[in-house]
Amino acid sequence: xxxxxxxxxxxxxxxxxxxxxxxxxxxxxxxxxxxxxxxxxxxxxxxxxxxxxxxxxxxxxxxxxxxxxxxxxxxxxxxxxxxxxxxxxxxxxxxxxxxxxxxxxxxxxxxxxxxxxxxxxxxxxxxxxxxxxxxxxxxxxxxxxxxxxxxxxxxxxxxxxxxxxxxxxxxxxxxxxxxxxxxxxxxxxxxxxxxxxxxxxxxxxxxxxxxxxxxxxxxxxxxxxxxxxxxxxxx
Length: 235
Description:
Layout: H1 2-22, E1 38-55, E2 67-69, E3 73-83, E4 88-92, E5 95-104, H2 111-114, E6 115-132, E7 139-152, E8 173-186, E9 191-201, E10 220-234
Antiparallel strand pairs: 1-3, 1-10, 2-5, 3-4, 3-5, 4-6, 5-6, 6-7, 7-8, 8-9, 9-10
């Protein structure tokens, strides 16, 4: 988390310095765009979700940790932006996020036992504070951070089946904190902003198996989502 935040800050500072050197007298697009009290937009992007596991016993009976195979998912959503002042904006960015992860449980030999495929479709709603630097020509680096919640439509929380029947269950609702950075590009007719953001769950999402001695979940003290979002916004 510290490394990610340091990278965000250094990247924004470097971009700002470069723009100051090479964009001293550009043709300024959308000069008054950021003075609007409220404006709207949408975003498209990619995600990669992972899991962080906490264990009661890190090496029970000689078994190793659960492994996660990640894949690339996609994001789409809307943006509502409320201007606070020249440098700060409050943003609501509800979106639909799809991802797929595979979990490999140690101690089994049959694929039906050691492999669990976790398909998740999240309705993700973040409330973010956007801190922009000084605009340099048609570029403006920014940092963004805040909190969010999501509804996992594929959680299987209410399923009567569990891992004994091949079903890995997760909680429907999760809460996160988020931090990231991006750049506003002021084009002739709209503002385009690529950004990267780290997302970290604050509550465990695991729904344990009914059997308290389950070979799949009995040693898991906590299951927390972590993710990286790469979004392209159009405002």
